[in-house]
Design goal:
With 116 residues, the protein is an all-beta fold. Helices cover 0% and strands 55% of the residues. It has no helices and eleven strands. The strands form two sheets. Strands 2, 4, 5, 6, 9, 10 and 11 form a seven-stranded mixed beta sheet that branches. Strands 1-3-8-7 form a four-stranded antiparallel beta sheet, with no helix packed on it.
Length: 116
């Protein structure tokens, strides 16, 4: 059962924008924190942005001021608005959800490629 589905990735020129979406299943109960991670070729997966159940957001220094994490609970969807994209933002972006029981859920990932 697919519980997190990302969309919105693609190819964009440096300086451009993309908006990623992640629709999560209602079967994931008691979500504590949701986050966006990314993994570039040859690199470890890293956290990009997160949002708590209380709506508090946090960002990696590398994306602060450029990326915005938002949530539409009515649509069971979270978003990552990415502006002023740089080639170093190129990666597969993953949506993540952690529930209060400690279970971790991942989406399948969506590719973001930023050309110089």
């Amino acid at each position: 059962q697919v519980q997190l589905v990302e969309s919105g990735g693609g190819l964009v020129q440096a300086g451009g924008s993309l908006k990623l979406s992640c629709e999560y299943s209602r079967s994931i109960l008691n979500i504590g924190t949701m986050a966006w991670y990314r993994q570039a070729p040859g690199k470890a997966r890293e956290s990009v942005a997160s949002i708590t159940s209380g709506g508090v957001t946090a960002y990696a220094n590398s994306v602060k001021g450029r990326f915005t994490f938002s949530r539409d609970s009515a649509k069971n969807t979270v978003y990552l608005q990415m502006n002023s994209l740089k080639p170093e933002d190129t990666a597969v972006y993953y949506c993540n959800a952690d529930d209060f029981a400690g279970r971790r859920y991942w989406g399948q990932g969506t590719q973001v490629t930023v050309s110089s």
